[in-house]
Amino acid sequence: MRLRRITALAALTAAALALTGCAATADAGDTASGTDAPAGADLSLATANGELVLETAPERVVAFDYATLDTLQAIGAEDVVVGTVTSTLPDELSAFADVENVGTLKEPDFEAVAALGPDLIIISARMAELAPQLEEIAPVADMSADGTRQLESTAENALAIAGLFGKADVAQERIDENAALADEIRALAPEAGSTMFLMTSGGKVSTYGPGSRYGYLFDDLGFEPAVTGGDSSSSHGQEISFEFIAEQNPSSLLVIDRDATIGESGQAAQALLDNALVGSTDAWKNERVAYLDGVDWYFVGGGLDTTKRMLEELRAVVE
User: Fold this and answer.
1) What is the bridge-based pairing of β-strands 252-257 and 289-291?
2) Residue 41's pLDDT is what?
3) In this structure, are residues 92 and 295 in contact, taking their beta carbons and an 8 Å threshold?
4) Tens of pLDDT along 59-109?
5) More confident of the two residues 220 and 234
6) Alpha-carbon gap, residue 83 to 103, rounded angstroms
């Protein structure tokens, strides 16, 4: 799909037309910015770009961030979502399958967004550069998690989103459950020995160490890194060879199959790693190779339910 930019006037006009079409079923006192805030609601939202303060509780949300959808589903606030990226929606978020499609995770359909008349648009890092254009339509909240403090940042984002709808207490219960899981993992992580986190894609293998996208496994949860140093800035990790894996001889391997996750053809991770070099490692010999759920780890990541499943996978690795 070709990315299109529309002017503020066109966007607002489309939004106005959409709202006019809904006027027959709306109360006379309702506005595009929503109604009175629910009891206990906090309309200030801490985002990646600073604090965003809304005038009223959002009633029409467009979300380009699956982690936010995951959190809204976890707290029982699904009904506020009027648009999202449905073309790649994972099964875990099927509750949103019938809302309007608004483009892709990287390329919004500006006209479709404007026509929905949203009072809040939620994005993540994949769409951060397009925030100024989306702001011509409605307030934009960039809920990208801070990868250097992933679990803490995820919890903060969940509380902020839940607070808009007076459901911070619901979110806090889930956060406490996840925190307890994380504590269990911290206590057991040393038993995993030296650990290498891998992603396979297009027949190649990349690794993530401390300070990287998945660095919190080492920096926060206490796994011993088999690899340190290198480039930690790439979201796709640092490409390595099978020889390198054999030389590092990790005690445990954690693996994401990116091709399978995003629906691209390619050699499956299990088949790709099934070779003499990887087979020489202690991880392979001792059957300490865990293939993680790529949808949760790579595609969604950061929602309340997703975080719980990710932590449960890690706990199973170290138990």
Assistant:
1) parallel
2) 78
3) yes
4) 999 999 999 999 999 999 999 999 999 999 999 999 999 999 999 999 999
5) 220
6) 9
CATH class of 189-318: alpha beta
Nearest alpha-carbon partner for 123 in 214, 62, 44: 62
Q: Which of 27-41, 62-76, 212-226 has the lowest mean pLDDT?
A: 27-41
Tokens of 259: 């091709």
Are 191 and 315 a contacting pair, CB within 8 Å?
Answer: no
103 vs 2: CA distance, rounded Å: 10
pLDDT in tens, 114-142: 999 999 999 999 999 999 999 999 999 99
Q: Are 224 and 288 in contact (CB under 8 A)?
A: no
The model carries a pTM of: 0.84
Q: Where in the chain is the domain with CATH 3.40.50.1980?
A: 8-166, 189-318
Helices (H), the chain: 8-22, 66-74, 110-115, 131-134, 150-163, 168-188, 216-219, 242-248, 258-262, 269-273, 276-279, 282-285, 294, 304-318
Residue that has been written with the tokens 């894996």 in this structure = 245
Q: What CATH class is the domain 8-166?
A: alpha beta
Q: Encode pLDDT of 278-295 as tens digits.
A: 999 999 999 999 999 999
User: How many CB atoms lie under 10 A from the CB of residue 54?
Assistant: 19
Q: How far is CA 284 from the centre of its chain?
A: 30
Burial of 14 (0-12, 13-18, 19+ CB in 10 A): buried
d(CA 235, CA 214): 9
What is the C-alpha separation between 137 and 133, in angstroms, rounded? 8
Decide if 143 contacts 157 (C-beta within 8 A). Answer: yes
Task: Burial-class residue 40 by CB neighbours within 10 Å (0-12, 13-18, 19+).
Answer: exposed
